[in-house]
Amino acid sequence: MTETAGPASFGRVSDDGSVFVVTPEGERMVGQIPDSTPEAALAFFQRRFEALRVEVDLLAQRIVNGALSPDEARKAVAHQRAVVLEANAVGDLAGLAARLDDLGPVVEEAAAKRREARARVAEESRARKEAMVAQAEQLAEGTDWRGGVVKFRDLLDEWKELPRLDKASDDELWRRFSTARTTYTRRRKAHFAEVSENQEVARQAKEQILAEAEGLAASTEWGPTASAFRGLMDRWKAAGSAARGQDDELWARFRAIQDDFFNRRSAVFTAQDQEFQANFEAKAALLDEAEKAILPVRDVAAARAAHRDFIAAFNQLGRVPRDQIRAIDTRVRALEAAIDEADRREWARTDPQTRATAEGTVSLFSAKLDQLRVDLAKAERAGDAKRADGLKNQIASIEALLEQATATLDELSR
Fold it and tell me: What strands lie across the sheet with 26-32, from one edge to the other?
């Protein structure tokens, strides 16, 4: 039997066309091609080996690139190694298997990195879930009844996206989160139930206020009714809010009643203002005439007669604007005061006792002044400068008093 060795001693072909692969454990027949040349038969099984090597290359590339998980890589390497060692192919099968064995450390390194990554993700997930639980528990004790619902929904959606922890830790954190959410929901429901009850109480109170307002709507007692409306407004504010739609409708009704009353009052007051302004203008003109006719007062009797006529005409006119009352009353009082002062002066001028007193005062000051002048002459002749200066000061004072007394007597003599 004639035998032909294969390339690099990894295979041979026997005379009957049997093809053998050479391995460290010995030869193993991989197939038989009787109607072929040894070269062609050997080349056929060498191509099978090349195909295996391509598969090993692809597997190595996928493992290095991280396309396979460590478990998947281990299974793939073990499977491919078995395929290589049992392959009906001619080539360095042991070397190809050794290459697969060399992938083991690569797989284990990837597995270690994956474990580290998972541990890191788990720690980040734990930290985030603990933070979410703390936030949820804070929300559960708060009063953010509208925004809290959205925040809890967002937290729940995020929780579902986070990786699970170990069962005990994950269950405990979820229990706290769920309890906080339930607590918030119960408190929120209780709050809105209370709000609803308060809104109903407010609605009833405002309905009562509306009924009272409707009873005041047609009143023409402007002051008391305006005060009553202010009281109703204070009660309205203190009543709180009814449900949104109801509150707006109740307010619209109340506002309409108020506006109707105050618009009517404003129209009346506008007409009154016009009337009062006309009264003021008439009174001011009448007062101008009276002041021209009476002032300055020369004849008290005539002045009093003119004043009586003026007052009678003045009082016939109606009320004036509030901001004009003080000014016109001041002028009326000033006119009357001028007449009274003139009357007082006239009485003083014609009173005998008053004139006698004035004449006595002039005589007294004149006699006193004559005596002081005599004394001054004596002091000057005696050379008593100090006494002379004192007498001069007394004389100046008495002269001033005499001048005033003389002026008073002159006025009484007119």
Answer: 4-5, 11-13, 18-23, 26-32
